[in-house]
Structure formats: structure tokens, C-alpha cells
Write a structure and sequence with these properties.
- Helices cover 8% and strands 36% of the residues.
- The strands form four sheets. The chain has a 19-stranded parallel β-sheet that branches. Strands 2-5-8-10-12-15-18-21-25-31 form a ten-stranded parallel β-sheet.
- About 4% of the residues have low confidence.
- The chain has one domain: Single-stranded right-handed beta-helix, Pectin lyase-like (Pectate Lyase C-like).
- It contains two helices and 33 strands.
Length: 330
């Protein structure tokens, strides 16, 4: 079902207000609640309550999620501590509705925080997710909000809004977040409509800084995107072109600062708004042939415009800028 984007300005204002005030609301309200302490790995939070860590928690010896939230309206305060795991488990997995998770670090898991498709209306605030094998944040449900979160040095994606054809990830909000030095994209909307990325930063990620792979009526506004797709600053690019690990092989002709893919017939990228962003130093390629590929500035890209078919884009690009010494993509 496609969205009709008739009240865009109202949606922008309301969602920004909610996103920016989430952390203050969460921290003030939970001060009045009695805390249940989380001191063991594999803990399942299956009913409403306020929970908090009492110290750093190393869960590298279990194959279960370090913490699993299955109840509704669970509040989890990491209390400034670090929750860690291994390459086979998830640091925090959310299946319930309305969870509040905030104030700490998740690291060294397969996924830092994973929101399952059946889960929605969650708020993730002031969380750092780093050094995870795949994603810092994997968002598969609807109407989730992440504010003031950081994803760094994850093996694949920093922030992934990731639906499926029959179960799209819609109406999620990412505001004032940072994606830096991730092995693939900094921010990506894979299949989803009505998602918003505002006032965020994507620096030195190995592929696109911000990418819409397939979806409509998404907004990318007021973001700063710099030095993505640059082999010189990306450790995960392989030097050997015969490397069989295709996911980690450098293909600079694919990348841009903000990259809107054409999508598919079932899942087109159209009616997205890309406005008031600033991009500089993002590298792409002048040509699709690997043998003649020469890296160049490729700050903005819309496959609907730049494909050989030269289709007219249905996406809205407005008031995006580059550094004085940079030139945008074609």
C-alpha cells in the first residue's frame, strides 16, 4: 500500500518534536520507577517494567540474545554501561511493542540492536552500537524512533530499515544519529515507505552514506554526508581483486554520498524527498566498466535519472549543497 504525501509539513514538525524530546522524556519519567536489575546474560524481559544494568555485561559465552524484550512497554536503561556478545548472537532483540532502550553501548555481537517485524512504536535513545559483525541497528518493524544514536565500525550497515515485499518497514524515524566507518552503508532503507532520516551524519562508510534501495515517500532532510565510498579511509576494502568475499571487495562505481536506487517493479523508489542535505568528498566512478573506472566525486545520485534509459525521476531533490571544491554527481 502506497502512502499519499498530503500532510508532509505537519508530519515533519510533529515527528521532529517527538524525536528530539524522547531522551528527556525517557530519562525524567523512569526516575520515578522502581528498577529491576539485569545482571545475567540471556535475560528475557517479558512483561511491563523498568530494568537497568548495574555494570558492564559480557555475554560472549551464549548463543542467545544477550537481552531479549518480548513484553510490551518495557523500559531498559543501560545506565551508561556496555553490553557485549559474540558474532552469533544479538545484543538486544526487541519483539514486544513500545520498548524504551537508552543510555549505553552495545558491541561485538552479530547485530547490535534488532527490532523484529512484529515490533513497533519503540524508542531507542543515546545508544552507541559498534564493532558488530553485521549491523549496528536493524529495524524491521513500523513506527520506531531512534534519536542521538551512533553506529561505528560495524561489519556491514550502520542503520538498516529493512522490510520485505510482503512486510515492509514503514514510518520509522532516525534523527540526530551518526553512522561512521561501517563496512557497507551508513544508513539504508531497503524496503519501506514513509521513513525519515533527519539531521544525521554519515562519515567514511565504505559504501553509500545514505541509500534508499526501494521504497516511496521517504524523507532525507538536513543531513551531512562526507567521505563515503573512499578506499583510502575504509579498512574493509580488499586489496586483492580476486578476493572471493564479494561483500567486502571495493566496487567504487556503485557508491555515492546519497544514493537513490531505481528499485524494482514491485518496489520502486519514487516520491522520496531529498532536501537541504550537504555532501562532500564522496567517491563514485565515471563509468560502469570496472576496467576503466576512475574514482571521482559522486555526492548525489538518482538511478532513475542516470540509468541508460534516462528515466525521469519521480523523487524530489531540492536545496542540496556540496563543498565549494566538490561537484555533485550527474
Amino acid at each position: 500500500m502506497r502512502y499519499k504525501n498530503k500532510t508532509k509539513s505537519i508530519r515533519v514538525v510533529l515527528r521532529l518534536i517527538v524525536g528530539l524530546t524522547t531522551s528527556l522524556f525517557v530519562l525524567s519519567l523512569t526516575n520515578a520507577l522502581n528498577a529491576e536489575l539485569v545482571e545475567e546474560c540471556g535475560k528475557e524481559l517479558d512483561e511491563y517494567g523498568y530494568f537497568e544494568l548495574t555494570g558492564n555485561l559480557n555475554c560472549s559465552e551464549t548463543d542467545k540474545p544477550a537481552i531479549k524484550i518480548t513484553g510490551n512497554w518495557v523500559w531498559l536503561n543501560l545506565n551508561g554501561y556496555t553490553l557485549s556478545g559474540n558474532e552469533d548472537n544479538v545484543c538486544i532483540q526487541i519483539e514486544g511493542e513500545g520498548a524504551r532502550v537508552y543510555n549505553g553501548t552495545v558491541e561485538s555481537c552479530k547485530e547490535g540492536i534488532e527490532i523484529k517485524p512484529e515490533s513497533g512504536d519503540n524508542r531507542i535513545t543515546l545508544i552507541k552500537s559498534c564493532n558488530n559483525k553485521r549491523r549496528g541497528f536493524r529495524i524491521r518493524g513500523d513506527k520506531n524512533q531512534l534519536s542521538d544514536c551512533t553506529a561505528t565500525n560495524n561489519g556491514r550497515k550502520g542503520f538498516s530499515i529493512e522490510g520485505e515485499e510482503d512486510e515492509r518497514a514503514n514510518d520509522n524515524l532516525l534523527v540526530k544519529c551518526l553512522a561512521k566507518n561501517n563496512g557497507h552503508q551508513g544508513f539504508i532503507i531497503e524496503i519501506g515507505d514513509g521513513n525519515d532520516i533527519y539531521w544525521s551524519k554519515a562519515y567514511a562508510n565504505c559504501r553509500d552514506g545514505i541509500e534508499i534501495d526501494g521504497g516511496s515517500y521517504n524523507q532525507v532532510l538536513y543531513n551531512h554526508v562526507e567521505d563515503n565510498g573512499n578506499k583510502e579511509v575504509c579498512d574493509s576494502f580488499a586489496d586483492d581483486p580476486t578476493n572471493p568475499l564479494d561483500d567486502y571487495y571495493y566496487k567504487p562505481w556503485y557508491y555515492a554520498g546519497i544514493d537513490i536506487k531505481a528499485g524494482s517493479e514491485m518496489n520502486p523508489s519514487e516520491y522520496n524527498e531529498i532536501k537541504y542535505n550537504h555532501a562532500c568528498g564522496n567517491l563514485g566512478c565515471n563509468g560502469s566498466d570496472e576496467s576503466i573506472c576512475e574514482a571521482r566525486e559522486r555526492n548525489y545520485w538518482d538511478e532513475n535519472v542516470n540509468d541508460e534509459g534516462n528515466f525521469a525521476s519521480l523523487n524530489e531533490w531540492e536545496n542540496n549543497t556540496v563543498c565549494p571544491e566538490c561537484t555533485p554527481g550527474p
